[in-house]
Amino acid sequence: MGINKQDYVAKIANASPLRLVIINFEIIFDYLEQSKQNIDNEKEFDFNILKARQFLSELRGSLDMQYEISSYLLTMYNYVDRQLAKFLFSKKIEDLEAGTKVLKTIMSAFEEIEHQEKDKSSIMENTDTIYAGLTYGKNGQLQEFVDIKHNKGFKA
Fold this sequence. Notes:
Blueprint: H1 5-13, H2 17-37, H3 42-61, H4 68-90, H5 93-116, E1 129-136, E2 142-149
Antiparallel strand pairs: 1-2
């Protein structure tokens, strides 16, 4: 099945900088879940672990090392990356769970910070506005309704 990229496009377009970090964690967890489901399909398994590690690398690359907390996060991200590398070769769920436990703890901390954040404005302006909902069709069946106001990209 794979990752639903369209869901993430809508989330990213309306995300604050802090929310982007949380979305990155969500993507990692989605790829790790896919890797567990495809543990017997070596090609899919390897692809999903590789993608999760790439998004983890993005988290590492976004750290601002002038802050002390960044060195702690870097240490934890490196630990998780080693666990994912072990999982890639061992295919032992325990290796995966050790890494995901750390990531979930970090993600929950970011979510708590987000709840306390005052400025939750999107970093992207001039993006599509998406309205979605359900409506009843002719035979009384529920139908999805999506209306998109088209704007593209950053305002210059």
